[in-house]
Write a structure and sequence with these properties.
The chain has about 500 residues and is of the alpha/beta class. The protein contains 20 helices and seven strands. The chain has a seven-stranded mixed beta sheet with strand order 1-7-6-5-2-3-4, with helices on both faces. Helix 2 packs antiparallel against helix 4 and helix 7 (about 190-200) runs antiparallel to helix 11 (about 270-285). The longest helix is centred in the first third of the chain and has 32 residues, at about 40-70. It catalyses: beta-D-fructose 1-phosphate + H2O = D-fructose + phosphate; beta-D-fructose 6-phosphate = dihydroxyacetone + D-glyceraldehyde 3-phosphate; L-glutamyl-[protein] + S-adenosyl-L-methionine = [protein]-L-glutamate 5-O-methyl ester + S-adenosyl-L-homocysteine. This is Sugar phosphate phosphatase. Its cofactor is Mn(2+); Ni(2+). Belongs to the damage-control phosphatase family. Sugar phosphate phosphatase III subfamily.
């Protein structure tokens, strides 16, 4: 999703923070991303972007104040003013590089956060000296804690309008994709197109909305739509064939249950493309169930909450376009039937830890992923947490950088928006640096990476935990579906090797 807010101008980092710990250079290899490197994207984000986001939240609260006061009375007005003052104070703490504070209120995950903060070395507990991932996550968590500790504002999502606006302005792109994805043949080409469209989705709707179709190009042709954004030009790693082969192996082996965990990223149009991919998996028997893992609180501007999923499906059901309305009804039936489920809320997704510590930090979540067949991690933030926000050698193997985190088969899909990347062919990063010095932060490049699980079929933690299935949530009132049959199509399985991809 494209951030459509202005950041404005903000004061520079306090003079007190410019000591010997800070350097004018970029983030060096084999170190954590950190704002103490002044030529890094982390520094720019903490100095300019985060204060801008906090200011936009303040402006939104002021804009919504009459409605909130009407709902909650004068006490609501006082609470809004208190939250605004807390955010202003947090901005000053950030700009002065203050220490992280412990949580002492109604935050349900405060014990986990406080334990994490206290385990950090004292000199790594300030915004610019800390790992960038820790600082960013802490800021988003603190902001929402201000609302949690009021009587009336705890459920308010100050990013909801951005996600909803993003979907509403994407009508042309949604209509084209909805038409092009009906009755797709079950083959690798269809699957690969959907994966790549999904990966590029946070910029795809802009290009598709601006695209002028030629006379011989149909809006309903998925191959045409896949070419619109020149999807392959900047795809640095494409392991989609390995994901396809893995799902095909499960079916050929007669595996009764193939559960796919999808760790969501952004809402709006991007989530729309998520659902197109997941619908394809379920329709074609490649997944018996998909579990959507969403954030527990407003997070990183546009991340998906469970409320965003319900809003999106209902928005489509009520849409005047017949095709989009039918699509919304179909997705509602899939969710009512438990084919696509929203996983139980876990605050681990809004924590600061890398994923390789999940087994120690949230064992139940780890067991759930272990009980599934494939986990797809979507977006840049999920990628950073898979990599530990660490600057690896760009040609280091993906499997190495996971540092043992392999509860099931894993796929990571992201556009590159920070200096963390791995699995590239030898010399590729240096070539890119010469031709496009900002390639790591531009979002113009992407990767789809995959690795198999370490586990054998005889041992699945999720089966032992009782978390292998989720309860069905029948949240939508829709007509009974008509009987649908799968079209029989010959499966095309490419036999590319990882080595041939690199060469």
């Amino acid at each position: 999703m494209v951030l459509r807010i202005s950041l404005g101008r903000h004061s520079r980092l306090s003079e007190k923070t410019t000591d010997s710990e800070f350097t004018e250079g970029p983030t060096p290899r084999h170190s954590l991303l950190s704002g103490r490197f002044k030529q890094s994207f982390a520094f720019l984000s903490l100095q300019e972007r985060m204060p801008g986001i906090m200011q936009q939240i303040i402006e939104l609260l002021l804009e919504c104040r009459p409605e909130l006061v009407e709902r909650f009375g004068e006490q609501g007005r006082d609470e809004i003013q208190h939250v605004i003052e807390c955010i202003e104070r947090l901005k000053r703490e950030l700009q002065r590089d203050r220490q992280f504070l412990l949580f002492h209120g109604n935050e349900p995950d405060k014990d986990a956060w406080n334990a994490f903060i206290l385990e950090l070395p004292r000199h790594k507990r300030t915004y610019f000296r800390a790992c960038w991932l820790h600082a960013e996550c802490y800021l988003y968590r603190r902001i929402y804690s201000f609302l949690e500790n009021t009587q009336h504002l705890g459920g308010f999502d100050y990013f909801a309008h951005l996600k909803q606006d993003d979907l509403q302005i994407s009508e042309r792109a949604m209509c084209a994709l909805a038409a092009a994805t009906r009755n797709l043949p079950k083959n690798y080409e269809s699957f690969s197109n959907l994966m790549r469209i999904n990966m590029w989705s946070n910029r795809y709707e802009i290009q598709l909305n601006a695209y002028i179709f030629q006379e011989d190009e149909l809006h309903s042709d998925i191959d045409v739509l896949a070419k619109v954004a020149d999807l392959d030009r900047n795809l640095l790693v494409d392991d989609s064939i390995f994901v396809w082969n893995s799902l095909m192996r499960a079916k050929l082996k007669g595996q009764r249950e193939v559960i796919v965990d999808f760790i969501c990223d952004n809402g709006g149009f991007e989530f729309f493309t998520d659902m197109l991919l997941l619908e394809f998996l379920v329709d074609n028997g490649m997944a018996t169930q998909v579990r959507l893992h969403v954030k527990a609180i407003p997070w990183y501007i546009s991340d998906v909450l469970s409320s965003d999923i319900l809003w999106t499906v209902n928005y489509l059901i009520d849409h005047p376009d017949a095709l989009l309305s039918a699509l919304g009804l179909k997705w509602a039936r899939l969710m009512n039937a438990g084919k696509i489920s929203i996983a139980p809320t876990s605050h681990f997704w809004t924590g600061p830890q890398p994923y390789f510590v999940m087994i120690d930090s949230d064992l139940e979540l780890y067991k759930m992923l272990s009980g599934g067949y494939l986990a797809i991690f979507k977006g840049d933030l999920n990628y950073r947490r898979l990599m530990g926000d660490y600057i690896w050698d760009p040609n280091e193997e993906f499997i190495t950088c996971l540092r043992g985190f392999r509860p099931c088969n894993i796929c990571a899909m992201r556009t590159v928006k920070c200096e963390v990347v791995c699995g590239l062919p030898e010399g590729k990063a240096d070539d890119l640096l010469r031709t496009d010095p900002q390639w790591m932060t531009s979002g113009n490049y992407g990767v789809i990476q995959y690795t198999d699980s370490l586990k054998c079929n005889c041992y699945q933690v999720g089966r032992l935990s009782g978390l292998f299935h989720l309860p069905i949530h029948r949240n939508f009132k829709v007509p009974e579906p008509e009987h649908e049959t799968d079209e029989s199509q010959q499966q095309r399985q490419s036999r590319k090797s990882r080595q041939s991809q690199k060469t």
